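Batch job 17 of 40 flagged for manual review because the log was empty.
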Amino acid sequence: MLSQTALLVIDAQVGIIEGPSIGPVFKKEQVLTVMKDAIQQAREREIPVIYIQDLDVGKDDPQQHEIHPAILPLADETVIKKKATNAFFETDLKAKLNELKIGHIVMIGMKTEYCVDTTARAATTLGIDVTLIEDGHSTTDNKVLSAEQIIAHHNCNLHGLDNINYFIMVRKSVEDVFEHKHLEYK
């Protein structure tokens, strides 16, 4: 079983986090702080940081397509471009994780009900445990629910979601989220 850990930063792009057409996301400053802290902790612990960048964001405005300047990748960090909500779909993400012997991903990013949810669920079907940082993802209101409700709903429903032997844990950013706590239950 692969048990190394990586941090996955999902669609942390200017156009989603700041807007104008999609954002700003709920509790923008707070979530950016949590994301910055998680990235810094991963770097200090020499845990790979992998950025996912959605090709649909900012099609008409290259600035909106860029990763948010508060959390830019380092030159040696991987950036994987995707065109679907599932970061594994038609990308080399799974191959990269296999190369690094990653069996556990910690996730932060945007938007909760789309790419964060879909990628987390897909990871478990591919034999990867997921830790979603409870306060490290965000979204915007939709026609039915507020962003706060969407985030709370996903934190509740994704926690414990499993596919045979691999599952999702939702943990607070103040915890040691890089600890592969799933192994205690296997």
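Reviewer: the log was empty due to a logging misconfiguration, but the result itself is present. The helical segments are 14-17, 28-44, 62-65, 93-99, 112-125, 147-158. Unflagging and moving on to job 18.
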